[in-house]
Amino acid sequence: MSTFSIFLVLIVVVAFLLVVVIMVQNPKGGGLSSSFGGGGSQQVGGVKKTSDFLDKSTWALATLLLVLILLSNIAIGDTDNSQESKALDLDAAPTTSQPVAVPVQELTPEADSTEE
């Protein structure tokens, strides 16, 4: 398994987790935070702490996703399988072909037109 494949799998996993964390949140206060009950922000393990955790985890997963994408770009550049175009190779001698001699027939007036 190549390095790029490992990064690709990690990117997919982090993206899935990021989607799950974002879907759990509800900006109007009806997400996972409201299922613990209570409306006061004075709760120790309730609504306030859950929204802080979800907010921090969203930023952490988004940052991790960005770093993984940048690292996968570096991993793509490290592969030795890349084939360069021969058209851009300046060291290669140009391939010129010799002109082919094509026989040319001379046009002569027909004998029928001179006999009258």
Overview of the molecule:
The chain is built from four helices and no strands. The protein has about 120 residues and is mainly alpha-helical. It has a domain at about 15-35 and about 45-80. Helix 1 packs antiparallel against helix 3. It is rod-shaped, with a radius of gyration of 36 Å. Mean pLDDT is about 75; it is low at about 40-45.
Helices and strands, with pairings:
Layout: H1 3-24, H2 32-35, H3 47-77, H4 111-114
Keywords for this entry:
116 residues; mainly alpha; 53% helix
**Global outline:** rod-shaped
Subunit organisation of the chains:
single chain
Nearest-angstrom radius of gyration? 36 Å
The span between the termini is 90 Å
- What structural category arises from helix and sheet content? mainly alpha
